[in-house]
Amino acid sequence: MKKEKQQELAINAKKEENISEWYTQVIQKADLIEYTDVAGCMIFKPNSYQIWEKIQYFLDDKIKKMGVKNAYFPLFIPKKLLCKEEDHVEGFAPEVAWVDYGGDTKLGERLAIRPTSETIMYDAYSKWIQSYRDLPLKMNQWCNVVRWEFKHATPFLRNREFLWQEGHTVFATKKEADKDVLAALEAYRATYEELLAIPVTLGRKSVGEKFAGADYSLTAEPFSPADGKSIQACTSHHLGQNFAKAFNITFLDKNQKKQYVYQNSWGLSTRSIGAMIMIHSDNKGLVLPPRVAENKLVIVPLLFKGKEEIVLKKAKEIKKKLKKFSPFIDDRNNVSAGFKFNDWEMKGIPLRIEIGPRDIENGVVQIARRDIYEKIEVKIENIPNTVSSLLEEMHKNLFERSLKMMEEKTVQTFDFKSFENAILEGKRCLVPWAESIESEDEIKDKTGAKSSCIPFKFEKKSLKGIKCFYSGKPATCWAYFAKSH
Ligand code: 87F
Question: What is the extent of the structural domain holding 348?
């Protein structure tokens, strides 16, 4: 293949220069999605759906260990159900998609396409829960949801239809619910940090940013250092008795006294895939953290004329020994080895094994890492062990590299002027804040930044004599502010 043709196939936008063009190209070149005629509704092709399957597999196990069972509730929610808890739909109403017709017949009642399932689930819960013996009730569903946003759609980060899990748990006491909401947050932290190699900040959402139907909302939030934006892909809400009162979910306690239940809801969506791409990928394309990569490695036999057969035979032998890493051999004979290297780098395959006639003579192969472009020579008998440890190292390196970048892009600011400058520079600011909805709205209007979370880590950090960076009033908390996706 001609050089120009090869370049055309490569990514030509730079992450540090034009991040949105770069993001689009990474996704296209890695063959992750296909656009459709409906803006914001995208095809998750196998290369991205398999990432979602890894996330599902990992997180579903954690969810089940919390004692939660999977179920499936219908896609359509009758209008009167959706509008039962007012705080819940207020503000979200413009994003609800409706069905008004079945064929040519106008429906008696409009049906919402679920934007989230609190209402339809809690209507059922109110029938299922009668006695303290029916509690706790813990269910989760993996499904699609639709939010008809009008902002420009971005694959994974802002889709009108996206995939998620939503867990909805019910308890007799607030104490149990408080524990569950934290357990869900821990499952999310693990998914990000241990599967996707993405460091997250754990904390509470501000009063202005929390879910309106919740008493408080918690988040495990990644930050994308390259564009200085935080990415909310999961939240865990304590709903108190708000929905219990709206949906009349009550139980008779041990003293035959009627009580309202306490509830939580928590979700993690395919936005997390967007975070993964934004945070780890580079100017060569997608970087898959090894634990989510379906195929951990590609074997590229160097097919020198006359030696094809022995090289291929050796490649197959090696493949057999590496079964648990789901390797595959790229034996295409219509493209060069260099083309193959670029191709699999673009698609994010963690490791590449190159093997040529000379290597076979020496009993070695060359192994290249996707994260740091390092190539090492490995004795054939050592390949399985080396592959194992390289994959572990890669996970660690991706995590630590992202953590370092996140820390480098985080500053403490104590006054509004330096805050504004830092936000302009794409930084995340840790600020002493007198938390209020009004000040958050004003800050958002003036700078485009909002609070991403009030970190647990600094809950005990002293605020004595410290003033709010915005209002000058005595600060009530330490908060992270940044622009967001
Ligand atoms: C859009 C339209 C209608 C978000 C919406 O975060 C309703 C809503 O309730 C809505 N967008 N929300 C909040 C969702 C809350 C909660 N649901 C369960 C979660 C996690 C999973």
Answer: 292-390
- Mutating to test ligand 1, I would choose from 139, 211, 269, 270 the residue with most ligand atoms within 8 A of its C-beta, which is 211
In angstroms, the CA 98 to CA 94 distance is 11
Are 172 and 132 within 8 A, CB to CB?
A: yes
> 0.85 cut: is pTM over it?
yes
Domain containing residue 432: CATH number: 3.30.110.30
| Ramachandran bin of 242, using left for φ above 0, alpha for ψ from -120 to 50, beta for the remaining angles | alpha
Looking at the structure, tell me whether residues 201 and 157 fall in a common domain.
yes
pLDDT in tens, 324-343: 999 999 999 999 999 999 99
- Predicted pLDDT of residue 8: 65
- Ligand 1 atom nearest residue 116's Cα: 17
- 194 and 83, same structural domain? yes
Our count of domains for the chain comes to 3
Q: Is 398 part of a structural domain of the chain?
A: no
Q: Is the CB of 166 under 6 A from ligand 1?
A: yes
Residue 214 has pLDDT above 60, yes or no: yes
Does 92 sit in the ligand 1 pocket, CB within 6 Å? Answer: yes
Number of other residues whose CB lies within 10 A of the CB of residue 129: 22
* Ligand 1 pocket, residue 235 CB under 6 Å: yes
Polymer length of the chain? 485
Residues 328 and 463 placed together within one structural domain of the fold = no
pLDDT of 398-427, one tens digit each? 999 999 999 999 999 999 999 999 999 999
Where residue 307 sits, what CATH number does that domain have? Answer: 3.40.50.800
Q: Is 211 in the pocket of ligand 1 (CB under 6 A)?
A: yes
Query: CA 129, CA 122: separation in Å to the nearest integer?
Result: 10
Residue closest by Cα to atom 14 of ligand 1: 116
